[in-house]
Write a structure and sequence with these properties.
- By secondary structure, this protein is an alpha/beta fold.
- It has two domains: about 1-60, Roll (2,3-Dihydroxybiphenyl 1,2-Dioxygenase, domain 1); about 75-128, 2,3-Dihydroxybiphenyl 1,2-Dioxygenase, domain 1.
- It contains two helices and eight strands; from the N terminus they run E-H-E-E-E-E-H-E-E-E.
- It has helices at about 15-25, 85-95, and strands spanning about 10-15, 30-35, 40-50, 55-60, 80, 105, 110-115, 120-125.
- The strands form two sheets. Strands 1-4-3-2 form a four-stranded mixed beta sheet, covered by helices on one side. Strands 5-8-7-6 form a four-stranded mixed beta sheet, with helices on one face.
Length: about 130
């Protein structure tokens, strides 16, 4: 077996309209498909990343909040590659997104920073 890359990351949100706006308008991901599943009273939104990978955004009634601080076991955060971390940080801040100070990875020497989606899911910008 040889893994070829990441196909998608799935995210469950608490407020579908707010999260759809954040991922499609603020982060500017292209909508591939949007489905309402009446039997589950649930939305599924497929969003395209420029490299061909995807984010699946789900809504489920009554889903529990994600434990984060202190950090729980499981997926820690989702990182996005960007050409310039400072430009991306400035853009997000212009959209009223709180972004942490830029740091430098002591191993790679690359710049990175963290911000959160509307449900406080930790997201990272990582310079390439």
């Amino acid at each position: 077996m040889k893994l070829l890359g990441i196909h998608h990351a799935a995210i469950i949100c608490s407020d579908y309209a707010r999260s759809k706006h954040f991922y499609s308008n603020v982060l500017k991901l292209n909508v591939i498909n949007e489905h309402f599943r009446a039997d589950r009273n649930s939305y599924k939104l497929d969003l395209a990343m420029p490299d061909g990978s995807q984010i699946e955004l789900f809504s489920f009634d009554g889903s529990p909040a994600r434990p984060s601080y202190p950090e729980a076991q499981g997926l820690r955060h989702l990182a996005f590659k960007v050409a310039d971390v400072q430009i991306a940080k400035t853009y997000l801040e212009s959209c009223d997104v709180n972004v942490e100070d830029i740091r430098v990875d002591e191993i790679t020497g690359k710049k990175f920073t963290f911000f959160a989606d509307p449900d406080n899911l930790p997201l990272e910008l990582y310079g390439v």
